[in-house]
Amino acid sequence: MRFIPITQYDERTMVLAKPVYDNKRRMLLGANTTIHPKYLEKLIQLGIKQLIIEDAESKGITLEELMDMPTWMDVVDNVQQAYEAVRMKKPFPTKPVLMGAGRLIVEINSRPVVIPVPSKTAADEVKPYAHPVNVALMALQVGKALGYNELMLRDLAVGALLHDIGKAAAAHEKDHPEAGFNVIRGIREFSLLAAHVAFQHHEMLDGSGYPRAIAGQTLHDYAQIVGICNRFENMVTDEDVPPHEAMERIMALSSMKYSTEIVQAFVRAIPSYPPGTKIMMQNGEEAIVTKITSHMQRPVVRFISSGKEISLADNPTLMIAGSN
Ligand SMILES: [Fe+2]
Ligand SMILES: [Fe+2]
Q: Contact, 32 vs 9, CB < 8 A?
């Protein structure tokens, strides 16, 4: 299976590899079905921008690395419950959020790399809740790369899942970090560190962030991790920046806006070219990423013309020029 922009869908050659869900997270189309052109229009109207499909080119790509979709949907639901509770001023669903955090930790502990279900595959109404789940999934892998223990991972996951919860409480976007801090701080089962993730996720190392423009040592590592993953997720989902370019932009801000150590962990933990991505090699050959074995930035690729598969980790002179 592989990822394609929805505009590249061709019903003559492609079938869905994963189900497509509507704006209420109900399954619209199951795996192994084709999309009728009339239906495709409907999906585009819902805001779905990416599909996971199977075709001749994706043969043999199993996307083992992709997060289990039903689990992902459940955690998205946990997050949505939290937002709705805050919005309606109802009792906060503490247990579902802790359970969601726990399930993400199980996911990242089960294998070397877990790639999020892209938010672009979700309808617009679902994206605000898919976003924190994907930020949390990435943040946990950065935490893992930094050698965090279970307790640290749990606080990081709760902070990441709820980093934007203030958006459900604050009238203005600029007030959401503090509003989120106050929501999380009020819940006994959550650590104050998780609350600080919400408060500080838009702060920058050089003091150019908001809301308090704090700098350097006062910035907590968890907030930096979530800040980086948040930026990356927003670039890829809302700004149509390809993951490898988003990665470069994050690296460019290393030491100035983001801690070097955390950016390095991010590069070790998050692949620039997720499996199922079509790429262009520097010699002009087209290829497709088939899997990631050891090195996050040096995947196994298959050349489209010859069908030959090689590991870039073992062939350091072969360079990827970009994705298409
Ligand atoms: Fe935010
Ligand atoms: Fe965010």
A: no
